[in-house]
Design brief:
20 helices, Light-independent protochlorophyllide reductase subunit B, 521 residues, Rossmann fold, five-stranded parallel beta sheet
């Protein structure tokens, strides 16, 4: 574990909680000390879930450590069963309780409850949240899916695997994917974990194939179902127009249906805009992408292949899917960044000098400090990234949402740049009253502004140490503001480098343009 201000993923028991909260009829008993119950806030405050998570904590205290904490756990399991009467239970320990080695699995078995009790072994000091969700779902499927089906399966039937509580737009993605499958005439047998019961998991084997929406969560379970139930699975993410078309073709091939009716009426505005004259403003814009593997890879493809951006950075915190991210980055001629250290991500963004960042809520804070537009396309997220309205990432409607998500920050950035560029214009700067009022600009009542600014620049130069950092003259700073925001940082650093190499203590407008000419060769 690493002590840090921010973290991309919580401990693995948070992942287990996401699966339990997504399902119905399942209860999670977590062996945890008092204070580890903060996880409720993730669902009630960030996701605005309508009910508290189906989790019972043992909440032992410091004074209990000298007694029998195992007995506390057994009592908590028994009480949870009597109160909630779930179809199945999962039991495990938080990162702190893991150190006590109380063996929740053995203790739960000793109670002899008349329902399935699935133990979770989630090594909190080696693994993290998404792995915890994947392992929990895998254990549930193994325990509850039952024997392989012997009756013939309907070819055009599938299970949808992967959506959980507190997933990035999982609720909305599921609605879009269900719509696509319905339009193709493919029946959805079970959707899990989101909305499923333990009894539903017992019917997984009835479908002909599985659709994996989020490999971080459902790949392990799908691979097990493929081995034991002979169910192939589709893992193509239907994100973006191309991704959605590829998804439709893949599921149609497995189901033996014709994809043409769906593909002919896709209805996304993204391709139209990418072909329009207005889109030329976006061509070649430098973009840095970071997030979970599924969304980072998809966002990189949409940004480059469908909108026309240039990818200058691609990374993920999902180490379990690092190979896929590295392969995608290599296809774009760059090296992937695989890390869960947000400071390393910040350094990479600063070095790449992108014009747009697509990332998590942590990259939003980083981009704000660096003065770069940013859009959130992956968890971790904040409440503003869980809209009450329908806002999917997947499907053709999801492509429309992505189009807005990617383009709006740049368009607003252009507007801000134009306002900044004309701020000092004689007719538009802040000191000028509306022309129809006939009021003279305030700066004309005293000394001319240019004379005052020249005197201030001389004073700054006199105060600067001979060997110290270079100083910008006021008129040079004003000229720098006319440079578009997305390359302003690079222009500043190049100019300062040019000045240092020539021992110039003051950067003037002439220095700025000399540096531009020098580095443009």
């Amino acid at each position: 574990m690493q002590l840090t201000l921010w973290t991309y993923e919580g401990p693995p028991h948070i992942g287990a909680m996401r699966v339990a909260t997504a399902m119905r009829g399942l209860h999670y008993v977590l062996h945890a000390p008092q204070g580890d119950t903060y996880a409720d806030l993730l669902f009630t405050m960030i996701e605005r879930h309508g009910a508290r998570p189906p989790v019972t904590y043992t909440t032992f205290q410091a004074r209990d450590l000298g007694a029998d904490t195992a007995e506390i756990f057994k009592q908590a399991v028994s009480d949870a069963y009597e109160r909630f009467r779930p179809q199945a239970m999962i039991v495990g320990a938080s990162c702190t309780a893991e150190l006590l080695q109380d063996d929740p699995a053995g203790l739960a078995r000793a109670l002899g409850l008349p329902i399935p009790v699935i133990p979770l072994e989630l090594p909190a000091y080696q693994k993290k949240e998404n792995w915890g969700a994947s392992e929990t779902f895998y254990r549930l499927v193994r325990a509850l899916a039952g024997p392989p089906a012997t009756a013939p399966r309907v070819r055009a039937s599938c299970n949808i695997l992967g959506p959980t509580a507190l997933g990035f737009r999982h609720r909305d993605d599921l609605r879009e994917v269900r719509g696509l499958l319905g339009d193709l005439g493919i029946a959805v047998n079970v959707t899990a974990p989101l909305g499923a019961t333990p009894a539903d998991l017992g019917r997984l084997g009835e479908a002909a194939f599985n659709v994996v929406l989020y490999p971080e969560i459902a790949r392990s379970a799908a691979q097990w179902l493929e081995r034991t139930h002979a169910q192939p699975f589709v893992e193509t993410a239907p994100i973006g127009v191309r991704g959605t078309r590829a998804f439709v073709e893949a599921v149609a091939a497995l189901a033996g249906v014709n994809p043409a009716p769906v593909l002919d009426g896709e209805g996304s505005r993204l391709p139209w805009y990418a072909r329009s004259v207005d889109s030329t403003y976006l061509n070649g814009k430098r973009v840095f992408v970071f997030g979970d593997a599924t969304h980072a890879i998809a966002a990189a493809r949409v940004a480059t292949h469908e909108i026309g951006f240039t990818l200058v950075g691609l990374g993920t915190y999902s180490r379990e899917l690092a190979r896929e991210v590295r392969a995608e980055a290599a296809a774009h001629g760059i090296e992937a960044l695989v890390t869960d250290d947000y400071l390393a991500v910040e350094a990479a963004i600063a070095a790449a000098q992108p014009e747009l960042v697509l990332g998590t809520q942590m990259e939003r804070h980083v981009a704000k400090r660096l003065g770069i537009p940013c859009a959130v396309i992956s968890a971790p997220m904040h409440v503003q990234d869980v809209p009450a309205r329908h806002a999917p990432q997947m499907g053709f409607e999801g492509a429309n949402v992505l189009f807005d998500t990617f383009v709006h920050p740049l368009m607003m950035g252009l507007e801000e740049h134009l306002l900044a560029m004309f701020r000092d214009d004689p007719e538009f700067h802040d000191g000028v009253a509306p022309s129809h009022l006939g009021v003279a600009p305030s700066h004309l009542g005293g000394r001319p502004r240019e004379e005052a600014e020249a005197e201030a620049a001389t004073a700054v130069l006199a105060a600067a140490p001979a060997a110290g950092p270079v100083v910008w003259a006021i008129e040079a700073e004003r000229e720098l503001k006319k440079v578009p925001f997305f390359v302003r940082g690079k222009a500043r650093s190049n100019t300062e480098r040019y000045a240092r190499e020539r021992a110039l203590p003051l950067i003037t407008v002439e220095t700025l343009y000399d540096a531009k000419a020098h580095f443009s060769r």
